[in-house]
Known about the structure:
The chain is an all-alpha fold. The chain has helices spanning 2-21, 28-31, 36-59, 66-79, 82-85, 87-90, 95-107, 116-124, 127-130, 135-147, 157-161, 177-190, 203-222, 226-239, 246-257, 271-274, 279-316. Helix 13 (203-222) runs antiparallel to helix 14 (226-239). The chain is globular and about 50 Å long. Residues 12-301 form the DUF6895 domain. This is DUF6895 domain-containing protein. It comes from Dictyobacter aurantiacus. Pfam families: DUF6895 (PF21836).
Amino acid sequence: xxxxxxxxxxxxxxxxxxxDTHRDLFDPLTEASxxxxxxxxxxxxxxxxxxxxxxxxxxxxxxxxxxxxRFLQLIESVWEQPQYKxxxxxxxDYFQIYTMIYIVLQQCNVISEDYKAMIQRVINQxxxxxxxxxxxxxxxxxxxLDCGQFQYSLPSYEEIYHQTxxxxxxxxxxxxxxxxxxxxxxxxxxxxxGRAPCTxxxxxxxxxxxxxxxxxxxxxxxxxxxxxxxxxxxxxxxLHWYPDPLCQxxxxxxxxxxxxxxxxxxxxYSQEQRETLDETASIHYCFEENYHTTIVNxxxxxxxxxxxxxxSDRDEK
Length: 317
């Protein structure tokens, strides 16, 4: 157990170092180009960095990691810019991403609830809860509004879940990468990222869900897709269930493929392509291809490390 814990923590530590070194690239106000897709991509990246901070705060023990503090300082500096805040009112299509930034800062005790009333007014207008979306995205919206303790009108988690792909026990031979992302995220939101027991997942259906996650983890580990491998490991944390030896093999493989500077290769990352670029282009290429995979695995490794360490400490008593 000690060796496995050390391996998992090393993955987290190296990943966080890389994210810290490149944290300025998460700023959508300085990095966004005239291309609108670039702006939304960078705003999404900042939100994912914020999620890492929020879930870290939930499970931290003792002092806050200085790297997490620097991430929060960056996120706060972006949030405090008037042109950023006003987008919640002016761009309802971006509402969820911008509101998540507010929730992260509020839950990490960086800002007060002063802005909550304005966000609630946008919700009360009805647009952001009425727009059509997939069941998984509706669970995402439900979860976010619950995290912020907002008042809203949406179907229950159980009603939404029964419309998801995961609830229908899909044949794995047919699922696509997009389907697997829908499956992993469904479990994130149902369990509040492992924080809340999920009464929907019980008995035979829970066993089927666990089997699905285990099979997919084996498939994506074999395919060396570290993005979905990381998300599936995070699902294991959400269920507080770690099928061995598969989980151990996954951490060994991720550690072996983590790049020397700490990032974890995304599905489209190519070392050969990177080597053709100059230094600046190489930095941006690596960030664009690897930031999400690195955040996912940093998050999974931190949370699983905390879970396994707590279990190990209990066993020693």
